[in-house]
């Protein structure tokens, strides 16, 4: 079948209306009519060829919310009309150690991304959520129980939400823990919301004084202007965990020095240019760690969605039409959004 989509046919060209194929529904598949799709920084980097070779046509989008329109004969968890989501993955090998542990994002044989990953289906690679419809294996489809009025704002949870939730849970963030969130953007604003909801004492780090009140409104207990050396020094050796969402090269020592004994700085943003080498002495002197984290597995993504539905947590979004995607990309590069763009797919 063919469906309408927005995608690029070459790295130097903007996204535009195109028609793409979708496979027939197999016995373990779920067909989804897409209502909303969030826009992620990785969409922009990929579609413009900034992260290496891209398979074209490229249809981005891995923050998908929609309704089931058809299920395969072996599917029992979903039925027509169910509200569901699809995140950054649509398949993995299912038999390596990470997959068996429910950590499909670390699949040793390579997980299949929602877009720009090789697949036997035409056109030979996956095509994402900037489209009317998608067909996904049932084990990679997620149940959404938020109120219908919140569905557009749920979409970014499928990437921005789980990217922050997974490390917060892995490092046992909760009551009695002092947690820092570096950067108040698409990822960082979700990090603040989730860490606060988990019961931690949350300190937001930003380079901009103008974001102080916004960070407090999101749930931060304190806000530190990271360019102010005195404000930073006042928090020395006091953090259990710091989640760094910034995707630009910067000095990590400024944050590792704030960790207490056995504290961890976790990176979830990939900079265009490498960070300056961190001081080994700072790490050794406090048995501190610098770690990284990649999205989350299907089980923990479902856990995150259920937690957010229970707590009434969504992303702060700006809803746009499909013909505004390129404008949204340019605004996103200028950080001119609070905090995530979401496409109304009915405008396709």
Notable traits:
alpha/beta; Quinone Oxidoreductase, Chain A, domain 1; Rossmann fold; 6-stranded parallel sheet
What's a quick, concise take on this entry?
The chain has 348 residues and is α/β, with parallel strands linked by helices.
Question: How would you portray this structure in words?
Answer:
With 348 residues, this protein is α/β, with parallel strands linked by helices. The chain is 24% helix and 26% strand. The strands form four sheets. Strands 3, 4, 5, 8, 9, 16 and 17 form a seven-stranded mixed β-sheet that branches. α11 links the parallel β16 and β17. α4 packs across α10. It starts with a strand and ends with a strand. 44% of the residues are buried. The mean pLDDT is 97.
Helix and strand string, N-terminal first? EEEHEEEHEEEHHEHEHEHEHEHEHEHE
Quickly give the CATH architecture of the largest domain: Alpha-Beta Complex
What is the C-alpha radius of gyration, as a whole number of Å? 20 Å
Strand content: 25-35%
The number of helical runs is 11
CATH classification class of the largest domain: Alpha Beta
Shape: globular
Spatial gap, N to C terminus: 16 Å
> Regions with pLDDT < 50 over 5+ consecutive residues?
none
Number of domains: 2
Approximately how much helix is present in the residues?
10-25%
**CATH topology descriptor of the largest domain:** Quinone Oxidoreductase, Chain A, domain 1
User: What is the total tally of β strands?
Assistant: 17
CATH superfamily of the largest domain: Medium-chain alcohol dehydrogenases, catalytic domain
Oligomer: single chain
The structure class reads alpha/beta
The overall average pLDDT, rounded, is: 97
The main β sheet shows up as:
7 strands, mixed
């Amino acid at each position: 079948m063919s469906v309408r989509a927005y995608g690029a046919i070459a790295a130097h060209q903007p996204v535009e209306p195109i028609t793409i194929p979708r496979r027939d529904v197999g016995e373990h598949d779920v067909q989804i009519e897409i209502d909303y799709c969030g826009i992620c920084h990785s969409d922009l980097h990929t579609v413009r060829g900034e992260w290496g070779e891209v398979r074209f046509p490229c249809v981005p989008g891995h923050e998908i919310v929609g309704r089931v329109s058809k299920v395969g004969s072996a599917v029992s968890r979903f039925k027509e009309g169910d509200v569901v989501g699809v995140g950054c993955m649509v398949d993995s090998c299912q038999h390596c150690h990470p997959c068996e542990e429910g950590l499909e994002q670390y699949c040793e044989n390579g997980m299949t991304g929602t877009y720009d990953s090789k697949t036997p289906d035409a056109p030979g690679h996956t095509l994402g959520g900037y489209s009317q419809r998608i067909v996904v294996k049932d084990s990679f489809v997620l149940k959404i129980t938020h109120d219908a009025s919140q569905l557009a704002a749920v979409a970014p949870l499928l990437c921005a939400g789980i990217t922050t939730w997974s490390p917060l849970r892995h490092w046992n963030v909760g009551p009695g823990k002092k947690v820092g969130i570096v950067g108040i953007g698409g990822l960082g604003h979700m990090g603040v919301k989730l860490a606060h909801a988990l019961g931690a004492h949350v300190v937001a780090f930003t380079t901009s004084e103008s974001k102080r009140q916004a960070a407090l409104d999101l749930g931060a207990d304190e806000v530190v202007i990271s360019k102010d050396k005195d404000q930073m020094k006042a928090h020395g050796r006091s953090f259990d965990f710091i989640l760094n969402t910034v995707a630009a090269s910067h000095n990590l020592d400024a944050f590792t020095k704030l960790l207490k004994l056995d504290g961890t700085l976790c990176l979830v943003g990939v900079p265009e240019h490498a960070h300056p080498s961190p001081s080994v002495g700072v790490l050794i002197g406090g048995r501190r760690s610098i770690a990284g984290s990649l999205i989350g597995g299907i089980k923990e993504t479902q856990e995150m969605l259920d937690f957010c539905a229970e707590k009434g947590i969504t992303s702060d979004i700006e809803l746009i039409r499909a013909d505004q995607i390129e404008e949204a990309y340019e605004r996103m590069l200028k950080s001119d959004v609070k905090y995530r763009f979401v496409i109304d797919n009915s405008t396709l």
